[in-house]
Every structure is written in structure tokens, then in C-alpha cells.
Amino acid sequence: MAPFEELQQLWQNQRQPVARVLDGGALTRELKRYGRKRNLINIVKAVLVAIQIAWIVARLRGSPLALAGAVWIGAAEIVFIVLDWRRQWAIAHLNFPEPSLGFVEHALARLREDARLFRRQFAILVISVVAGINLIDLGTVQGSVSRRIAGHLAGTAVALAAWRLGRWLREKRVEAERRPLIAQLTAMERSLKEGPA
Amino acid sequence: MTHAERERLFLDLFRENKSRILRLCSAYLNSTAEAEDLFQDIMTNVWHHLPSFRREAKASTWLYRIAVNTALIYRRKWKPAEPLQDVADVSHGAQRNLEEQERLTALRRAIGELPGQDRLIVTLLLEGLSYKEIAEITGITVNYVGVKISRIKQALEQRVSEVAHGAF
Fold it and tell me: Which of A82, A93, A141, B42 allows an S-S link to A151, with CB 3.0 to 4.6 Å?
């Protein structure tokens, strides 16, 4: 039987097992570039939302009700985007330097909490959008009662359809990414916690 | 920590630990492309957490924790199709003989047959870390590390010994 010390020596003296690895300097530059890119993406998102709000306010200035509805939708979008960034940030910034058992427990808790928070925040966004659309309709749709009712129903239906689509897309993404990770981490957690018999 | 300090510390850690971390990645994934990918993920996490690094902690333990935790949540992006390559290393390349290569291949195969978490633990042991250090990295008790390691050690030695005696 091979003594373990020999295996250690064999292991530590092996040739480089990976062919192409960046040198430290190149990796540092790449990391800085990545950080700048992330900042730029966030700035672009913020500018787009600001432009959208400015455009809506300019268009609906004549109708206070419609303006209130648009501002409500805009505010709900901004809050949702900020909360979404925070949730993504929390997932991406797990505490990697902590011991693995604690790390796995916290990562699992955060992943599960993320799903719960998303459902709640997305529902609040949809309710806000439905309310905002109906306020815009109240301020802008003219004509008979039946035409107005049809306007409200159409606006509400579009918002609810968007909500279902959003939920469906999210579920598909979660199915592909989050669930296998949760399963993997759950197995790791169980294995780490088993302890000696 | 200033930006220059962060960069200097990162490069020091990179230089001193590159080979060890690469070996851990290759043992965990057994695929060149994925090992490279995991290595970069680990170094990215090291970079992000450097500002919170306290010098009173042992740098290698800190780094290994990040490496092990990154590996634990690493999701395979490709099917394991590309086997590990041996790339000539000036310091050791000339001394390697066929028997050693066979034993190393057998060792890698034996590691590859272990469950994910055990692969990481055995790599730490092969790197020469003590039970206490492994317990500090994984967060499990020294006793349990001992139990796990004695099981893993036996399996590995058996497997490599089988290869040495032509039982493959």
C-alpha cells in the first residue's frame, strides 16, 4: 500500500495541471475593467429610467391624474430596480472567507430568502403598475362609460399578462440556475453536518 | 487599504498560492477548461474580499476558505469532455518518469471518484495542511475531519496501490 506521504509528495511535485492561466497582473487589470463595466451598466439603467420618467411627465403634464399614475409606476419601477440590485448584490457578495459550513448555511438561506423577496416585491410592483395604468386611463381615456371601462380592463389585462410572463420567465431561470445550486448546497450542508458516528 | 496595497497584496497572494489553488481546481473538476474557469472565479472572489482581509488571520487559511467555498457553489458550465493536460514545467518536468505519471493519473482518478466535498478535503490534506487547519477552513470539527480523512486516505492508497500492481 502506498504511504500517504508519498502521495503528498507526488501531488505537490506534479506539473502544472492547467494549460492556460492568466498572470496576476493581467487578472488584476481584468478585474478592474469588470468593475468599471458593472458601474457603467448601472449608470445606463439609471439614465434610461430618468429619461422615461421625464418623457412621461412632459407628455402627461395636462392631466394630474394621469401624471400621478405615471409617477406611481415610475417610482415603483425605480424601487424595484434598486431592490433587485440589492438582492443580486447580496447573492454575488456571499461571505467567501468564512468557514465552509457557515458559508453553505448562509448561502442557502440567502438563496431561499431571495426567492421569497422577489415574489413579494414583484407582486407589489404589479399592483403599482395596475393602479398607475388605471389612473392614467382615468385621466386620458375619453368617451362613453363602456369605452372607459374597456380601457381600464385592457390596461389591467396587459399588466397582469406581463406579470404572468415575468413570473414564467423567472421560474424558468430559477429552474435552470437556482434550483440545482440549492440542491448542490443542501447536499454539501448535509454532508458537512453529518459528523462522526 | 489603499488601491495600491490591495493590488500588491493580491499579486503576492497570487504568486505564492497559484500552483496550490490550481491543483485544488484540477482535483475538484478534472477538466482543464473548467479548472481555469474555477481558478478565475476564486481569484475574483479573492480580489473582492481583499479589503476585508485582516492580517492577523493566516493568509493561506483565508485563501483556502475562499477557494473551497467558491468550488462548493461552482456550477459546471460544460460537460467534462476535455481531460486535464500535463504542461511541461521546467522545475519538475525533466525528473518525471513513467511510473510516477501513472501513479499521479491513478491518484487523480481516485480523487475524481470521491464526492465533491471529500475531493476538496483530500486536496487540502495532499497540500500538507493539518487536520486543525482543514477544520478551520471547512468549519467542521477536528474529530470529524479525522474520521473523513482516514476513510478517504484508505480509499486513495488502495486505489493507487492497485494501479502500481497492475490491477487497473
Answer: A141
